[in-house]
Input
Amino acid sequence: MKEAANQQMLGTASPPEICAVIRTMGAWSVEEGVAPYNDILPIVVLDEARQRPTAVCGTGFLVGDGILVTAWHCVRGALPAGQRYIVCRKRAPDLYDPFPILDIAQHPAGRDLALCHVPLKVREHFKIFTDPVKPGMHVWTFGYPATHVSQDAHGELVFHLGPRYLEGYITRGFVFPEAMGGPSGVWELDMQVPGGLSGAPLFFQGTDAALGVVFHAHEVETVETFRSIDPVTGKREPEVVRVIQFGLAHPIELVLELQGQASGGRVLRELM
Output
C-alpha cells in the first residue's frame, strides 16, 4: 500500500494511552513503556491493483520476530485474485504501514487459531502467563473491533480504525461444544467481543502476560416466561427469552501448540 494512499484510506481514531492505565492497575505491572498497538495489529484485506483496503477482519499479535498469531477465521477465507491479507502497524497519528501476511497455518487440531509470517520485528515481547488460570481472574485485551466505515468524495470506502482496550474477568472454564475442530476447553469472559476483536491476545490484568486468545462471542439463552394460554380469556402469552453474551478465549496452551513455516516448523512452545 502506498503511503499517500494509506493515509487517505486507513484512518484511525487517536489511540488511548493504554500503557499509563495498565501500569496503575493491581499489584502487577506492565514493563515500562509498553504500547499494545506496537505488536497488536489490525488484519486488513487489501486490493493490490487498486491499493485500497476492502475489509478489516480481525486482530493479530506478534509473539516473536516475523511470527503473528490470530484467529483462524480471520484469515481462512479464500480471497479473489489480486487481494491479500495484510497487517497494519501504526507509524504516526492517522498513518498505518501495511505488511503482507504470509505462510498462514491453522492449528494442527483444527482449532480457531492460526500462525502466520509477517515481515516485522517484535517490539513489546509479550510474556506467557504460567500460573494457574482460575475463574474470577481479571483480564484485559486490546484490538480493533467495530471499525467505522465511511466514503470519501469519490465514493471510495475509508476504514477508520478504532483501537480499543477492554477488560473483564474469567467467569468459568468449560468445554465449548461448538468449537472449531470439535468440543474444546475455553475460557468464558465477562467481556463484550464485538466483530474485529477476534484474534486479540488476552492478558492477566495489570501485566503483559498472555493467557489466551479471544475468538468468539457466545450467546446464552435463558427462558424467563414460558408460552402460555389464559384458561379464562384464551389470550396467548409468548415465550420470553433473555439472551446474554459472553466472550470466549482459547487457553494459552492451545496457542503454544501452533506451528508452521512462520516458526520454522517448530512448535511455538519451543520458541517462547
Observations:
- The helical segments are 3-9, 18-23, 252-255.
